[in-house]
Each structure stands twice: as C-alpha cells, then as structure tokens.
Amino acid sequence: MTDTALHRLLDLVPVHLLARDAEADGGTGPLTALLAAVARELDLLEADLDRLHDGFFVETCAEWLVPYLADLVGLAELPPDLGVTVSRRALVANTVAYRRRKGTVAVLEQVARDVTGWPARAVEHHPLLVGATHVNHVRADRPATVSLRGAARIEAAAVVSPPGPRGALDPLTHTAEVRRIPTRRGRYGIDHVAVHLFPTQAYEVGAPEADLPAGPNGGWSAARAAGDHWTFDPLGRAVPLYAPPRREEAVERLATEADLPVPLRPRRLLDLLGQARAGALPAAALPLGVRLRVGGVDQPDLTPDRIRVCHLEDPAPAAAPQVMVDPVTGRLRVHAPAAPDAVFVRYAYGGLADVGAGTYDRTAAHEALLASDPGAPVTADGPDAPPAAGQTEVSSGAPAPTGSVPTLAAGLAAAEASWAAPGSTTRGGTYVVSVADSAGYPGDLAVTVPAGTRLVLVAAGWPTRRRPDGEVLAPVPGRYAPDGLRPHLRGSLRITGEPGSSVVVDGLLVEGDVVVAPGQLGHLTVAHATVTGAVRVESAAGRPNSRLQLRLRRVVAGAVTLAATVPTATVDTCVLDATTGGGTALAGEGVHASLEGSTVRGAVRVRSLDASSCVLDGPVAVAHRQVGCVRFSYVAPGSRTPRRYRCVPADGEPGPLPVYAATDPASPAYPALAGSCPVTIREGGEDRAEPGVHHHLRRPLRLRAAQRQLDPYRPVGIELGIFGS
C-alpha cells in the first residue's frame, strides 16, 4: 500500500466523519483501517491496469508480449533469444516502416542494426566499380587510380574496427570481382551490397555528460608517463582512441563515420579540433580532453587550440602549455615551460564486451553480485544488504568531506580502525570502501578482515543528494553508484581473513597481484576487474584458507594460483592469459574448478573440473577424471580431462587450432575468435555460439538472425554479404 492511495481515499470522505474516526483510541479508527485495506487492493488494481495499458504498445510492453505484437503486424519469424543485451522490440516496432521502404539500402542497414543490436553500415558496391566512361556522361568521382594527394580518402579506406575487415568506409573505386559476396570473399560487383556490422563498443573515460563524482579529477583517468611521452592507457599500452558514436535513429539516412564505433582517425580529430577552435563545436563535444597538474596545482582543461595532432600540426607559437596527440597509438607529448606532475585525460577506448575493469555501468551486476555472495554477513533480520554498516570514500586529491580520504591505503586503514574501535558497529557487518575516481594509486596494499565481516572494495562514487531547496545532504553509507569509473591500483593487494570473513573486489584495475595471505578467509569475489599479475591464494600451518570459496566473474587476469588447501574456484566469463607469465593459467592441486564461458590461454592443473562453452588453449591435466564434465568447449590436444560432450577435438583425436582476432590485451578485439577460425571451434559453444569469454554475446547467432531477417528486404537480383564479426 502507498500513502498516496490512502490519502486519495481519505480526501473523498467528509471531514466530520474523519474527525469522529480520529477520536478513536490510538488516533486510527475503524474507518481509516477499512480504507487502508481498500487502498492496498486499489494499489494492486492500478498496477494491473498499468501493466495492461503498457502491454498495448511495443515500446512499453513486457518482453514476453513482443511475439504477440509481432503476429499483429504479420512478422512470422522472430530472431531467437540473443541474450539480455539484445531485444526484438525495435524490430517489431519498425516493421511497418521497413515495408514502406522495402528494397532500399537504408532499410537493410536499419534491419541489421535492430536485429543484432550492433551499429551497421550498408554499402552498395556498384558505384565503387571502375568502368569505361561514356564521353557524354563522364564520372570524375570514379578514377581508376588513387590520388596520393587525397590523404583523407586513403585514410578512410583503411579504417577498421576490430574484429571486422576494412571496407565499410572505403570511398575508393575498385575493379570488379567474380567471387560472390555471400561467401565474404568477393565484394565489388554490380549486384553486390555489403552490410558491415560493428560489434565493438566505445567506452568513455570521464564522459562530460556522465554524473561523475565531484572533485578536481572527476572521472578523468591519470595518464601514464613513458619516457618522453604519456599514454592515455593507464598501463602504458598503445591503445587506439575511439570517438563515441552518436545514435542514428532515422530509417532514411545511411550511417556515417560519426555514427559508428571506429578508431579515431588523425584527420578526423584535426577536423573536430578545427570546428572547436572556430566555435562551431563545444570543447566538451570533442572525443578527448587533457588536463595538467603543475606544481601540485590542477590547471584548467586545455583549450582546443592547445591540443595538436601529431604529424599533421606543428606546436602552437604560444608559450602556454600544449600537447601533441597521436590517436592511433593513444600517446601524447606535453610541451610546457615546466614539466607537469601529472596528466589527466578524457577519452574513449574500444572493447567487445563488459569484461575486465572498465567505465561501463555495473549497477545491476554489482547488486546481483552482493545478493548472491555466499559470504554476506547474516543479521537477525537476514542477510546484510545495503545500506552497509560503514563506508569510506576514496578520492585522490579531492577536498576531504566527511567520510572521504585521499588514498586507497587510507581507506583500508579507516575500515580497520572502524573494526578495531571499542563497541564497533561495523565489525560483523559489511564495510564498503568506494573509490570515486579513475586516478592512479601507487603502492602495495594490505588489509585484515575480522571474523564474520565483509569488505567491499568497489569502484563507485557516492551519488549527490539534494533537497528541493538546493541543500546538499550527507551521503548514506552503502548507497553508491558503480558506474563510469576505473581506478588504477599500481601495486598488489594482499588480503588476510579470519574465519567467516568475505572480500569483494569490483571494478578495479590492479597492476600487480591479488593475494590471499595465509589465514581463514571464507570467500573472495573478484568481479569486473583487470589483474595484470595473478590471483594467488597462499596457506601455512594452522592458517590454510581451507574453507575459501573463490569466485571470478568478468575478470581479465594473468593467472590463478591456488594453495592445495583451497576447495573450490568458480570462473565465469573471464580471460586467464598466462602466455607471457610462465604458461600456467590455473593451478590448484586440491581445487574443484568450475569454468563457464571463459578463455584460458595456458596450462590448467586442478583436482577436478567442470567446464562449459570455454576455450582451453593449453594442456589440461585433471587428477580426478571420474567426476566432472567438459562440454561445448575447445580443449587443447593431449589434455587429460573428465568425460567430454560435444567438444573440439574429440577424445584422443587431432583437431584444428583456434585463431584469435587479437592476442594483444591492448587490442579492442582481444581475445575474440577470428572469422578465419575453423567453424567447428568458432560455433562450438552451447547453442552454436562462440565459446570463450564472448560466449554471452552470441555473435554467430546474431549473424544468422541478421541473414534471415534481411532476406525479405533484399531487392530482386541483389546479392547480400554480411561482414564485421
């Protein structure tokens, strides 16, 4: 029941009856009690009416009603379930508009986008063919040779968004090909139309429109010093910069480069900077921004005229600080009278999925993670849920409001001090240390968690609370927003736990190891994090961590090394890549490992194993092979595993090897399977989806669904090819 429903009913009652009713003992008479019961039923009735009303419209109906609305518009075949990230709602809503424009290239593009959930671009290749020109109809826009002076056209021809091929934005003419386009081999023909899909997402760091925490840095990332230059990537890797795409809604208009998640070309960046310098584009709309800290003082954001493009511009003649940016490698060089102490950057990077530390919204995933945490403290009223017993916010260099500290070490120290205080109310409950920016925090960290207590170390900020009159209210412990942030720990995290304790690490970029020291930690959950080193569990006499339950979810890590006393480990939608760190990706003599939709590049040595829809690209040695199962997975030849079900290769048989679109962690396509990967591996996961860390994306299913849905809108005599995934 809501107070609003009860008040509405009370407003209909004459005042003298309410006065008589208020004279009853306790101030709540039988009339008010009766109306309260009626109000509860009124709430249920109104909610049911609202659901019925929403069900009449495809924009607001429940997902299970979409097939019924599709039947009303004559859409006989709907795509299969492609996961929670793809809805069939847009396809049904736009079906009538598609039919009105049936046979046009714009409709092919829109259908592909609505079916797959990915940005798309359709290209007619007939206008891009070189041909003999009639003297009465000279086509100067179709030269048989490429002008080397047209650098912008040549640069656009080379644009590629991994794992897709080039050609989506290619303006150059080509000679005709005899190979057919449905095979993805021949593109340029008279009757050929290509639909390019772009599964890559552009993740913004320090997005101007995001509701990021207050402070001098906000959600901007700390650039990494690398000799005479800086890198946008906090790990110092050569990461290409992206421009966040705009959302293209109109069915009539073809997508352009601005609508697609593609790497930022130097000349495109130069054009955008030119518009900003002329006042035609606000500086906040630029795909990147730079801010310097000189002499311990944060300077204002660099204006567009002080951001220059490498190899295309010379430094500005002014003596003011300026930077030269190379968007291809994600590097910048600072030209200033005094060397900066730190450089903070706003930019976008590419990736295929929400895996590893990133600036994507983790709110729903984090809430589900805490709700399913087996180590959640239990109170008299049940499992402890937010608001938590205590919380400390970490914000580098920010003014210190109540409950805020400037370093991660200070945040963990505040938690330990709260637990150790006499009469502590946080000991035995949940304590949250939220990191409210994307800055770098150097130094190794260590924390000891008391018995029966849960520590949540999360990349999140306290949301601003204001009254209608503008008064700022104090934050509520346990209420935080895990979105838009990627803090960077430049060191290792060492955890010691007492019996029944639990630790959750969510959203952090750890340049080091996550180590569980000898003790009695009950549960460790690492989620949406990147660990460049290893997740390691140690043991010692009397402190064996023998009841530890380890969970990794959507993590990119170098390896997982467990003491023989650790009983269980769950790895879900993760990447374990030990190709550069010794070759062993998962090791635990006494552990039962459960792997789901993960890519493991390196050796696996465990006691028993359950695996589903995984890529196990390394020798697997399982001690107890009479229990467990490996299903719908690629298993390296020569591995000793439990019984297999629909795996590649079958037991004892030689088989093909996986082919990756990228093996460099800095690549947006890492570590997706390439289009040239053998189809038995590429579609070997459950439901004929891609095995490995991108299994949840269901990329092969999206491609097949797009092919089926595009066919009715294909003009007669036109051959269609789908590229890009």
What does this structure look like?
With 725 residues, the chain is an alpha/beta fold. Among the domains are: 52 residues, no CATH class; 155 residues, no CATH class; 150 residues, no CATH class. The protein is 18% helix and 26% strand. It has 13 helices and 42 strands. The strands form 6 sheets. It has a 25-stranded parallel β-sheet that branches. Strands 3, 4, 7, 8 and 12 form a 5-stranded antiparallel β-sheet that branches. Helix 7 runs antiparallel to helix 13. The protein is globular, with a radius of gyration of 29 Å. The two termini are 50 Å apart. About 1% of the residues have low confidence.
Which helices and strands appear, and what pairs or packs with what?
Elements: H1 3-10, H2 15-22, H3 30-54, H4 66-72, H5 89-93, H6 95-100, H7 105-116, E1 120-124, H8 151-157, E2 192-197, E3 201-205, E4 221-222, E5 224-226, E6 229-231, H9 266-277, E7 289-294, E8 297-298, E9 307-309, E10 322-326, E11 331-335, E12 342-351, H10 363-371, E13 378-379, E14 382-383, E15 390-394, E16 404-405, H11 408-420, E17 430-435, E18 440-442, E19 445-449, E20 454-459, E21 465-466, E22 472-473, E23 488-490, E24 493-497, E25 502-506, E26 509-510, E27 514-516, E28 523-527, E29 530-537, E30 549-553, E31 556-561, E32 568-572, E33 575-577, E34 584-596, E35 599-601, E36 603-612, E37 615-616, E38 620-622, E39 628-631, E40 634-635, E41 643-645, H12 679-682, H13 699-710, E42 719-723
Parallel strand pairs: 2-42, 9-10, 15-16, 15-17, 17-20, 18-23, 19-24, 20-25, 23-26, 24-27, 25-28, 26-29, 27-29, 28-30, 29-31, 30-32, 31-33, 31-34, 32-34, 33-35, 34-36, 35-37, 36-38, 36-39, 37-40, 39-41
Antiparallel strand pairs: 1-2, 3-12, 4-12, 5-6, 6-11, 7-8, 7-12, 10-11, 13-14, 21-22
Helix pairs in contact: 1-3, 7-13
